[in-house]
Amino acid sequence: MYRDCSVGVVIPAYNEEGFVGDVITEMPAYVDRLYVIDDQSTDDTWDEICEAAARDRDARTNPTGNERASGQRYASGEGYADVATDGGTSALASRAQVHDPIGRVVPIQHRENLGAGGAIKTGYLAARNDGVDATVTVDADGQMDLSQMPRLLDPIVEGQADYTKGNRLLSAEYREAMPRFRFVGNTILTFLTKVSSGYWKTMDPQNGYTAISQEALESVALEELYEYYGYCNDLLVKLNVADMAVADVAMPAVYGDEESSITYSEYIPKVSTMLLRNFFWRLKTKYLALDFHPLAFFYLFGAATAGVGVFAGLWTLFIALSQLSVPFLEGVASVLVFALGVSLLLFAMVFDMAQSEQLEAQVY
């Protein structure tokens, strides 16, 4: 328990032999439950998970056989099936085999490789079924400083946020520690995620060090969570529609010997397409279906008008090149139409920022 709140940690693992065991055994004592998901690894990740879980259990058990730390609610492994809802249990069982707990560790094996997002989704389903008060996500590669976990948990425990995430861009010192190619890619995805999610102050959306409240887990459709690397971006959109408060927490990252499994030629178009689709879904759901706000029309009309302006400008350029003369009035008209479209888009962004301003906070 952490400040009277139960804490679960989701650890997705794919070919993390040599890393995941240390993450398990170094987990803080106040963590009640570790959901470690083996995503059909081809190395000895599964064996390392089970061995590390046994070591962690033995280290936490005193000579009388009782748990020393705060995880007594889940220490024996009892109660998992009791608190699980039928729907949640079914969704979890269809995608993974949940083994008996080893101490506070729940070893989970995917029936097929589902990717990083799929593993996080599986862990979230298990944590939601258990009714855990706050659920943290930690990578299995040892990049995340576990001593920083209370900074993610405090805003949730104190009722200031429903979802917290690490942010490596808030501090100049942390930004400088990030490899240059990651910084550029992160900056681009940050902007696209701001537009898609409506959380305009939130940065570093790819940071996988997060914590989420039980209320937030229950407010989003976990069964529909994106299962590729953009799962964290997708979750932000869903949280915004549910009016959940989000806090960015300044946090360093550790870059070690691990190798990224992301294929950027596949990653960029997939995540960009998902963000565009989510953007329209958010406008429809939050500002047309659940409530009404003119910003949805500003966005749509602005994009359409700017598109007409671009098309008219290209057509004018084509005429000018083919006739070797510049049609002045047509050119001015296309520029004005484009400027009007951009102005409408900027108005929409200002309205959007105002709508979510009270849902965002930054913790330095």
TrEMBL record:
<protein>
    <submittedName>
        <fullName>Family 2 glycosyl transferase</fullName>
    </submittedName>
</protein>
<dbReference type="InterPro" id="IPR050256">
    <property type="entry name" value="Glycosyltransferase_2"/>
</dbReference>
<feature type="domain" description="Glycosyltransferase 2-like">
    <location>
        <begin position="9"/>
        <end position="60"/>
    </location>
</feature>
<feature type="transmembrane region" description="Helical">
    <location>
        <begin position="332"/>
        <end position="351"/>
    </location>
</feature>
<feature type="domain" description="Glycosyltransferase 2-like">
    <location>
        <begin position="101"/>
        <end position="219"/>
    </location>
</feature>
<dbReference type="InterPro" id="IPR001173">
    <property type="entry name" value="Glyco_trans_2-like"/>
</dbReference>
<keyword id="KW-0812">Transmembrane</keyword>
<keyword id="KW-0472">Membrane</keyword>
<dbReference type="GO" id="GO:0016740">
    <property type="term" value="F:transferase activity"/>
</dbReference>
<dbReference type="InterPro" id="IPR029044">
    <property type="entry name" value="Nucleotide-diphossugar_trans"/>
</dbReference>
<keyword id="KW-0808">Transferase</keyword>
<keyword id="KW-1133">Transmembrane helix</keyword>
<dbReference type="Pfam" id="PF00535">
    <property type="entry name" value="Glycos_transf_2"/>
</dbReference>
<feature type="transmembrane region" description="Helical">
    <location>
        <begin position="296"/>
        <end position="320"/>
    </location>
</feature>
